[in-house]
Design goal:
The chain is an all-alpha fold. The chain is built from 5 helices and no strands.
């Protein structure tokens, strides 16, 4: 967990563009779920971290929970599996789609 926090902090400091902020969100989500540090509540802890990071980046809050059984969940699960195999890009793409859906639905400027 110490390495995770150190890596996230380093990414936050270097996230001076929107693209790097999205990459930081994707990494933070993927790595915390990959490490799976808690016996229970990993998803809740991860969502809390993501909400905190969005606030730090001044990104309007978006829904970070993904409903099981939905088409979005299948895509999310695939992106997380790719992350577990060392590929961050699918999770970045999932974040891009997540933010686009929020913008389409709420018209928020992202």
């Amino acid at each position: 967990m110490r390495n995770y926090v150190d890596n996230v902090n380093a990414r936050i400091l270097g996230a001076n563009t929107f693209e790097l902020q999205i990459e930081t969100l994707a990494y933070s989500e993927g790595e915390l779920l990959h490490v799976h540090p808690f016996e229970d509540f990993n998803g809740r802890a991860t969502r809390a971290v993501l909400i905190e990071l969005m606030g730090r980046f001044d990104i309007p809050p978006v829904e970070v929970a993904v409903e099981r059984g939905s088409a979005a969940f299948a895509s999310y699960a695939k992106a997380l599996a790719e992350y577990d195999n060392g590929r961050l890009q699918p999770l970045i793409e999932f974040w891009d789609a997540r933010l686009q859906r929020a913008q389409d639905e709420f018209g928020s400027a992202l």
